[in-house]
Amino acid sequence: MTLPELLTSEELIAPDRIAGKMLDVNEIPFCAAVYEADFPYTPEFVETVRRATPEAMRKDLAVLRQRLPGFPDIHITDEGFGSGLWSISFDGIPHVANPEKRYVTVAYGSTNIAMDTRPEFWSRIDPDTHLYSDPHPMSPERLQQFSLPNPKGRLDIPTWYRHNLLDHGLGLQLYLRNFAMTFNNFGVEQLRKG
What we know:
single chain, alpha+beta, four-stranded antiparallel β-sheet, three-stranded antiparallel β-sheet, 4 helices
């Protein structure tokens, strides 16, 4: 299997959409080779991704502000992020990895994302009609790089399950988006190293 190029913030922004211009975490593709590997489900790998996510957020926020004028202001420090009167500490966001069950979850209050091998938690991306009328901003050829084999010819792309994504604001959504991108990219880089 050929490994895809790393995900970029630019390709995961959909300026032409009416809503959801910043892609939801369940629309961020997840490399099938990373999904099938064992190392991404370890606490050590998840901790490496967690430590890198704040810097990824800073870079992503700069791109979002450039591509989407008027994007809300979110303050990101080394300790956490927030806007106005609210803030969330990076240390207050639990990350759980279970290599035996091949399970990873990130949660804060009622919001969580999870990546695991249970089919009932899989999301699929249809590059032409995902989210009904809003097509995915990545080309079908680019999305194919992330796809699992499917005898019916459709793209079955592992993505993150998400629950109550908006309960704790745009800052947490930005954190989870960047955790998902970083998880994928670090996984691809690890596979390239062998």
